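Intended use. Records like the one below are meant for learning the mapping from a protein sequence to its folded structure. Do not use them to infer anything beyond what is encoded.
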Amino acid sequence: MWQIEQRSFGGPDVFERVQAPRPTPGPGEVLVRVVATSVNAADWKVRSGLIRSLGEPPLVLGLDVSGVVAQVGDDATLFAPGEAVYGMVFGGANAEYVLAQESRLARVPVSIDPVHAAALPVAGVTAWQALASVRSGERVLVHAAAGGVGHLAVQIAARRGAWIAATARSGNHAYLRGLGVTEPIDYPTTDFTTAVREVDLVLDLIGGDYTDRSLTVLSDTGRVVAAEGPPTHPDSRVHRLYVDPTTAALDELAAAVDRGELTVDIAEILPITELAAAHRRSESGRVRGKIVLTADR
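Structure written out for the chain above:
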């Protein structure tokens, strides 16, 4: 089988297509023939060496996967060969086949095709779990609201009856209002700490000084859910989020999509041969929604 790997950390040009043995699923594992994957910020951060969660090169990136079950291992009983599934792997989806824990897969939503489903797992489950505590009438601030996680988080908060503020460039404000944002904030020209107050939940998808600055806009019972940054924070109001893409979480996400409550915005669909270009665009920070990559046969 083919896979796209990197043998060193660096820019997008480190990728090369190589041949590798087709893996065999072990207990609780499923071998998936990849139909599509997508680019997440974590992909280019691993590629460049900013984070080392997948270890040292050689590496095959790709966290999101949508495809068809090719083979199941012992004790893997949830899916049968030929079923369309989607979910998350900890690297490896930029390939013809990838091994996945069956507990991190679910059936593709019936209302969308497998290519669009590839945009959902990491971004969708992150948004879903980050906003699990939001209640009707609460005030929510979403940073990087037009991005892959952000645009889904806005929709989830809106469905739960929250008042929503969002940081994004002005060109995305009309788009975000259409998703349910009440107060878009043009972050290049406006300091969000002067634009909004008494926030019950801030979803921080940026990290850095955004986490501490977000603390200044909270209500007395407010909290910051940080999807970026260090694993702990000295302020107990900051809750570090690590996505947990279980079958149950993916099934909930699929049900929301099938009910018409959640729509994933695809910025671009590219062949996997354009992986380097997709990384460059994602790394620019100017992508609305997600970039999807289709696997060639």
